[in-house]
């Protein structure tokens, strides 16, 4: 199944979008990568989503991959938060009225913010080792927020550092696809300035900014549709104990753990991840249909 690339204008800047399954019957699935990531982080699950009867849409966040940087914005707000505005504007540009939204790591925080900002646009929310559920994060992420890190990277950094960061996201390094390593060389170092800007918007050396976290937790009750939270047991970037607090934020959440897995379950343990994700999408669509007085059949056999 072919993956189509589109370059579209969102809030005045170009964004790169990958999609497949354009003739799908179910609601699209919008896939949001984490800080320093790129759209292909979702490569392994895009075709299975499309084969389940849904359009899969993966995007480079502004300043990552091949999307234009956003400039001077307040990424996470709380006032005039850029990311949820951008996600909704992206959907408008794609003529997508509503979509399941899935986010990994920082992309989980982006998905979370979009869902609570425009809950009618998102029939389900999936958080994969997500930001926004706790304050403590990996040391290398906190270190990147210190003054002078961009200048230091320009002096002593090299493209190979992207592979080092990628390695930290896996429990079993033998499961890192070579294509992903090559993309880390291409996109990782180039996106470091935006990596730092986005982190500083939400993180200090002490961890996630407490008032910012509290603001978005206070808004979580706006979102009443189904929520799935998935974590790798051996995640070294965002610790698994964040999972235990997810129901305090979203009481309706389903919580799932994938064993022998790091920070990128959709890549490291693709089959296990899909066995959780696809039936959840079925259940979410059926829940929305019941709320709207409709009846829909599940798109996947194990739904």
List the helices and strands and how they pair.
Elements: E1 4-10, E2 13-20, E3 29-32, H1 43-51, E4 56-59, H2 82-93, E5 100-104, H3 106-117, E6 125-128, H4 139-143, H5 149-156, H6 161-168, H7 178-188, H8 192-202, E7 203-204, E8 207-208, H9 210-219, E9 227-232, H10 246-249, E10 254-258, H11 265-268, H12 270-291
Parallel strand pairs: 3-4, 3-5, 5-6, 6-9, 9-10
Antiparallel strand pairs: 1-2, 2-4, 7-8
Helix pairs in contact: 2-3, 6-7
- Average the pLDDT over all residues and give the rounded result: 92
Strand % is 15-25%
Principal-axes geometry comes out as: globular
Question: At the first level of CATH, what is the class?
Answer: Alpha Beta
Our measurement of the CA-to-CA distance between the termini, rounded to an integer number of angstroms, reads 23 Å
The fourth-level CATH homologous superfamily is Alpha/Beta hydrolase fold, catalytic domain
Q: Biggest β-sheet: count, sense, barrel?
A: 8 strands, mixed
Q: What is the number of helical segments per DSSP (H or I, 4+ residues)?
A: 12
Major sheet: order of its strands?
Answer: 1-2-4-3-5-6-9-10
Give descriptors for this structure.
303 residues; single chain; 10 strands; 16% strand; Rossmann fold; two-stranded antiparallel sheet
What is the structure about, briefly put?
With 303 residues, the chain is an alpha/beta fold. It is built from 12 helices and 10 strands. The two termini are 23 Å apart.
Describe this entry's structure for a reader.
The protein has 303 residues and is an alpha/beta fold. The protein has one domain: Rossmann fold. 38% of the residues lie in helices and 16% in strands. It has twelve helices and ten strands. It has an eight-stranded mixed β-sheet with strand order 1-2-4-3-5-6-9-10, with helices on both faces. The protein is globular, with a radius of gyration of 18 Å.
């Amino acid at each position: 199944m072919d993956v189509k690339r589109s370059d579209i204008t969102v809030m005045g800047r170009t964004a790169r979008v990958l999609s497949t399954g354009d003739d799908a019957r179910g609601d699209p699935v919008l896939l949001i990568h984490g800080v320093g990531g790129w759209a292909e982080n979702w490569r392994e699950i895009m075709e299975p989503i499309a084969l389940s009867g849904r359009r899969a849409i993966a995007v480079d966040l502004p300043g990552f991959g091949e999307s234009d940087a956003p400039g001077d914005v307040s990424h996470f707000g709380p006032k005039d938060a850029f990311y949820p505005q951008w996600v909704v504007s992206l959907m408008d540009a794609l003529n997508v009225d509503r979509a399941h939204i899935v986010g990994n790591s920082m992309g989980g925080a982006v998905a979370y913010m979009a869902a609570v900002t425009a809950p009618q646009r998102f029939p389900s929310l999936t958080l994969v080792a997500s930001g926004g559920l706790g304050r403590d994060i990996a040391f290398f992420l906190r270190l990147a927020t210190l003054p002078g890190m961009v200048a230091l990277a320009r002096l002593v950094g090299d493209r190979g550092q992207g592979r080092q960061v990628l390695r930290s996201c896996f429990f079993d390094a033998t499961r890192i696809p070579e294509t992903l390593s090559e993309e880390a060389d291409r996109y990782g170092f180039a996106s470091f300035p935006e990596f730092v800007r986005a982190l500083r918007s939400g993180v200090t050396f002490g961890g996630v900014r407490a008032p910012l976290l509290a603001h978005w937790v206070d808004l979580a009750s706006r979102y009443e549709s189904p929520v799935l939270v998935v974590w790798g047991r051996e995640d070294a970037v965002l610790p698994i104990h964040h999972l235990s607090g997810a129901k305090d934020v979203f009481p309706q959440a389903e919580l799932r753990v994938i064993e022998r897995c790091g920070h990128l379950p959709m890549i490291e343990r693709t089959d296990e991840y899909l066995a959780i994700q696809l039936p959840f999408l079925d259940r979410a669509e059926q829940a929305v249909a019941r709320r709207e007085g409709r009846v829909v059949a599940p798109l996947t056999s194990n739904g």
